[in-house]
Amino acid sequence: MASVTAPPPTATEPAAGRPPEAYKKWGRESWKLRAPLLPALIFLIVVTQLPFVATLVMSFMSWSAQPDAPERSFAGLDNFKTVFTTPAYRTAVLNTIEMTVVVVGVSAVLALGIAMLLNHAFIGRGLVRTMMIAPFLIVPIAAAVFWGNGILMTGFGLVDGVLGQLGVPGAQDIAFLTDHPKLAIEIELIWQWTPFMMLILLAGLQSQDPEVLEAASIDGCSGWQTFVHMTLPHVRRYLELSIVLGTIFIVQNFDSVLGMTGGLNSTNVPFAVYETFYSAKDYGVASALGVVVVIGSLIIATFALRVVSSLLEEEN
Amino acid sequence: MRTWNRRRVAKIAIPLAAWLIGIVFVIPILYMVLTSLHHPQDAQTYPPSWGAPLTLENYAGLFTSASPITPALINSVITSVLSTLLVLALAIPAAYALAIRPVKKWSDVMFFFLSTKMLPMVAGILPLYLFTTKVINMPDNVIILILIYTAMNLPIAVWMMRSFLVEVPPAIIEAASIDGASTFRILTRIVAPIAMPGVAATSLICFIFAWNEQLYAKVLTSVAAQTGPVYVNTLIQTEHAYLAELAAGATLISLPVLIAGFAAQDKLVQGLSLGAVK
User: Fold this and answer.
1) Which residue in chain B is spatially nearest to A297 when comparing CA positions?
2) How many CB pairs under 8 A join A and B?
3) Residues B228 and B140 sit within 8 Å (Cβ to Cβ)
4) Per the UniProt record, which residue ranges are transmembrane (chain A) (predicted)?
């Protein structure tokens, strides 16, 4: 939780082009104007930025809370060396990337398709929309534990049961959670996050002028041509926004891993941080892992901020 | 002729596909509710006992068991409601300073808020854990959770509130100010009515995110301050049939979010897109 450099201010900034006397007035009044901003800023810095600074400091310390551990000391880059050379941590990084790319990619494609279906008028559209949104409104850990225990569990899970009733031999022994733990988590996350992306995309589609589409249809454009040349450019920003926001949430996912597999062959970075500090009580390595997460997120965030700032510019 | 056929196919295929996908997405939830209404021994069979008799005993059990859900629900309500109120108290003035009488470099401030949201919650958890348990010695306390959830939702709230306040026409405020209206009067008579839908949307989103949070709640609480999401995880048992009660707990804690989300579907979109989609 640190800040990243904001993109250069745009020309829409109110101070730009102000005559000099206005600047003087600005200076006198500026503290009055800034005052309402300060409580929020100070609060946020204290609760999110200071802990991150502490994490940074601790990442250079050898510090374990195990009863037989040596005294706290300066460790240089040892913790980072541990993070990059321990296979389990490398796997956690790769798992995070894999799960995020799969979930966000599949969800985005599904969400666009479903949003396009729901953009047509048909009987019961409101009800279908409500049904589609529902997965997103289930508390994430509740959804994860029920997927893990009620749906994908070996034997009494819904999937094994239905496969058995359809006559699939040995269905009772299919163990999705242990055989394909990452896939199981990905399916659950796709189920939960497709509705989120769909809602944003549907709002984008509905802001498209229907007369333009009608004109295209009268002029003889095929459905595919209309989609590629008119719909897709129109929803591009919405697609980017949903991908960016989806990525932010999926990278941070902890509940699905804990609730479904407990980390078995599917540990991601947030879960690894949790385990390293909460179970293994290695504060130094956990902090180094936290710093690595932040650096990774900075890369995503830089891209994300660009997308959001283009939306902001459009608004002005 | 060809287009006519195509249109006709589309007229049947689109609703059919939409309904089918909708049903696929809702099945896990319907099955969760069905499981929660079965007797524990009927809920955990291979294959599923579809027609087993229905009962509310699992829901009753959540409230009457040796470790009932009630305190966790109360804690969830307290943390979600109070953190949402605190978020509003901090975000509304901030949004005012960013939208109505914007400070210099307002867009930098906006992006600072946003960037704190983009960095993972998990990166600050260890210092907050040590600070809470070792420095101020307040483990298992809802106040800490309220403060953390406030910080977690503050960036979203500032962005959303600003997107609403920006819609207040500056000319009206200027005119009122020239006519001698006080700042208080301007705020209550002009800004508030336009901003109210924004406050509602912001509250909804902050409430849902605080209600759903589990990682910090798990790490920073044990018994007294345990929240609903942490409680649900403890329903997983190995010694007896547990699935029905787990389903009941999962359904019960999701109910407030489902109700709030369905009641305000359009606000949900606005909120989730940080106010970018109206």
Assistant:
1) B119
2) 343
3) no
4) 37-63, 99-118, 130-148, 189-205, 238-263, 283-308
Cα–Cα nearest to A242, from A209, A202, A279, A197: A197
pLDDT interval class at B266 (50, 70, 90): confident
Q: 3-class DSSP state for residue A10? A: coil
CA B13 to chain centre: 35
Domain A79-315, CATH number (from 1.10.3720.10, 3.90.580.10, 2.60.40.420, 1.20.1250.20) = 1.10.3720.10
Q: Residue B53 carries which DSSP code?
A: P
CA distances from B125 to A269, A284, B132 (A): 13, 13, 10
B38 beta partners: B54
What distance in Å separates the CA atoms of residue B113 and residue A70, rounded to the nearest whole number? Answer: 40
Task: Kindly report, as residue ranges, where domains of CATH 1.10.3720.10 are found in chain A.
Answer: 79-315
Angle at A107 between CA A103 and CA A112, to 5 degrees: 160
- Measured between beta carbons, the chain A residues lying within 8 angstroms of B118 are 4, 248, 297, 300-301, 304-305
A161–B94: do the CB atoms touch at under 8 Å? no
CB-based contacts of B156, cutoff 8 Å, min separation 6:
B117, B202, B205, B206, B209, B271, B274
> Of A146, A168, A184, nearest to A261 (Cα)?
A184
CA distance B72 to B217: 11
Give start and end residues of each alpha helix (H) in chain A. 20-34, 38-44, 50-58, 78-85, 87-118, 125-133, 140-146, 158-165, 176-179, 181-206, 210-218, 223-226, 232-251, 255-256, 269-274, 283-315
Option in B46, B97, B251 nearest A172 (CB): B46
Give this prediction's pTM. Answer: 0.90
Residue B9 scores a pLDDT above 60: yes
pLDDT in tens, B118-156: 778 888 999 999 999 999 999 999 999 999 999 999 998
Collapsing DSSP to helix, strand or coil, A232 comes out as helix
* Arithmetic mean of pLDDT over chain B: 91
**Are the C-beta atoms of B37 and B54 separated by less than 8 Å?**
yes
- The Cα–Cα gap between B260 and B273 comes to 17
Q: Compute the distance between CA of residue A194 and CA of residue A250 in angstroms, rounded to an integer.
A: 12
Concatenated DSSP letters for B95-161? HHHHHTSPPTTHHHHHHHHHHHHHS-GGGGHHHHHHIIIIIS---S-HHHHHHHHHHHHHHHHHHHH
Architecture of domain B69-234: Orthogonal Bundle (1.10)
All structural domains of chain B with their residue ranges? 2-60, 69-234
Paired strand residues for A73: A62
> Above 80 in pLDDT, residue A139?
yes
How far is B252 from B211, CA to CA, in rounded Å?
A: 12
Interface pTM (ipTM) of the complex? Answer: 0.92
User: In Å, how far are B81, B86, B250, B257, B261 from B204, measured between CA atoms?
Assistant: 10, 14, 20, 9, 8
Task: Please tell me the distance in Å from A204's CA to the nearest CA on chain B.
Answer: 8
Query: Rounded to an integer, what distance in angstroms lies between the CA atom of residue A226 and that of residue A119?
Result: 14
H or E element: which one contains B36? Answer: helix B2-36
